[in-house]
From TrEMBL:
InterPro entries per record: CRA_dom (IPR013144), CTLH/CRA (IPR024964), CTLH_C (IPR006595), Fyv10_fam (IPR045098), Rmd5_dRing (IPR037683), ZF_RING_GID (IPR044063), Znf-RING_euk (IPR027370), Znf_RING/FYVE/PHD (IPR013083)
Keywords carried by this UniProt record: Cytoplasm, Metal-binding, Zinc, Zinc-finger
CDD domains in the record: dRING_Rmd5p-like (cd16652)
GO MF annotation list: ubiquitin protein ligase activity; zinc ion binding
Gene3D superfamilies given in the database record: Zinc/RING finger domain, C3HC4 (zinc finger)
Protein name per UniProt: Protein RMD5 homolog
One of the GO BP terms on file: proteasome-mediated ubiquitin-dependent protein catabolic process
Zinc finger motifs (RING-Gid-type), residue ranges: 328-371
Highest taxon in the source lineage: Eukaryota
UniProt-annotated location(s): Cytoplasm
Alphabetized Pfam families for the sequence: CTLH, zf-RING_UBOX
Coiled coil: none
Residue span, CTLH domain: 149-206
């Protein structure tokens, strides 16, 4: 809703700016035409050097320019633009409050985990000196084991950028079982790229030997890809002309870095997205709601720091949803260990506290709020996600 309001205000400012610019150009064109006409009259006069003729023409020009009155014509559109710009600035200040400290809450963090998250972020980004500094200053040098893992990753990726797939293929072969368990096809993709590179730079015989040595084990599970690769032998030295863009496209090399990073992190048990980056992005997305909540609570003289649970949901995108969260459709409370979700025979789910209220603390049957089913005492059971 807030973004819609801001967009509408921006569209109004944009429209006023275009009108003002159009009007300015129109007035400038009018003034230019009058000046050009005056110059033509001076040049076409019987005696262009005559002061009398020049003075008469210039006098007429002044009268025409005064009639156009450019300042008066531009004043109106410019005032409207300035007014809308002022309103837009105030709107932005209202929605994007720069004092984000208002949404701060005292939370007891595990400093060991926080230090690891920070160091892991820098190692994953390839900023190894920064990661080392964080851990050394925190007095946790033993956590530098993360460095060696990500150092290997960056060496493999850097080699792949130079189209040297040997380190990546060696890594994929070493971690073949883990990659299979994850359903990854990265080893096949690497061998495909290497095969096509051999076919482009070498001979058909070299490519056939490579296929028999490294691609043959993948044949039973990937027959179609294998058949297309073999057909590419007809285009030795000119792979770009092969009619199989799905396997010969240069975009495979462009996407290889991201794929390798994703698979490498998966094998290590790390998320592809840096935990620090995800936390900051989620915080930025949820910050407007939190700031608005703090403002409302402050007006009602309620203590923000004393709250154990937010009274309103903070909507985040699907990329920030990593596990199931149940919110009771009756009480709107989020499920917890003290108030877990309970499954009824009709397959509808409520939180335990809502169930207890409806059943008068488990003393009588009640009707499901969402269907005609009659729920007897003890017919519900705890649901685990």
């Amino acid at each position: 809703m807030e973004l819609t309001t801001i967009k509408d205000a921006f569209d109004r400012v944009n429209k006023k700016q275009k009108l003002s610019s159009s009007k300015s150009q129109e007035v400038i064109d009018q003034v230019g035409r009058e000046i050009e006409q005056a110059l033509e009259k001076i040049q076409s006069a019987d005696d262009p050097t005559s002061p009398f003729d020049q003075k008469s023409i210039l006098t007429d020009l002044v009268l025409e320019l005064n009639a156009i009155d450019p300042l008066h014509q531009l004043e109106g559109p410019q005032k409207e633009l300035n007014l809308n710009l002022s309103k837009y600035q105030k709107l932005l200040e209202r929605f994007f409050n720069p004092d984000i400290s208002k949404a701060y809450r005292n939370v007891d963090f595990d400093l060991h985990i926080v230090n690891q998250i920070l160091a892991s972020h820098f190692y994953q980004e390839g900023l190894f000196d920064l990661g080392d500094s964080i851990l050394n200053e925190a007095g946790e040098p033993e956590a530098t084991v993360l460095k060696s893992q990500f150092l290997d990753m960056h060496q493999i990726i850097e080699a792949a950028r130079l189209r040297n797939l040997e380190p990546a293929l060696k890594w994929a072969s070493t971690n073949r079982e883990k990659l299979k368990q994850n359903g990854s096809k990265i080893e096949l993709k690497l061998h495909q790229l290497q095969f096509l590179d051999v076919l482009q730079k070498g001979t058909r015989a070299d490519a056939v030997i490579y296929a028999r040595t490294y691609l043959a084990p993948f044949y039973s599970l990937h027959k179609k890809e294998f058949q297309k690769l073999m057909c590419c032998l007809l285009w030795a030295g000119r792979i770009g002309s092969a009619p199989y863009p799905e396997i010969t496209s240069p975009s495979h090399w462009e996407n290889l870095t991201e794929e390798l990073t994703r698979e490498f992190c998966s094998v290590l048990g790390h998320s592809y997205g840096s935990p620090l980056g995800v936390a900051i992005s989620a915080g930025i997305e949820g910050l407007p709601t939190l700031l608005k909540l703090v403002s409302v609570m402050s007006a009602k003289k309620q203590e923000w720091q004393a709250m154990k649970q937010l009274p309103v949901p903070v909507e985040l995108g699907k990329e920030f949803q990593f596990h199931s969260i149940f919110v009771c459709p009756v009480s709107r409370d989020q499920g917890s260990e003290e108030n877990p979700p309970m499954l009824m025979p009709c397959s509808h789910v409520l939180c335990k506290q809502s169930m207890m209220k409806l059943s008068k603390s488990g003393t009588r049957s009640f009707k499901c709020p969402y269907c005609p089913a009659e729920i007897s005492v003890g017919q519900w059971r705890q649901l685990y996600f």
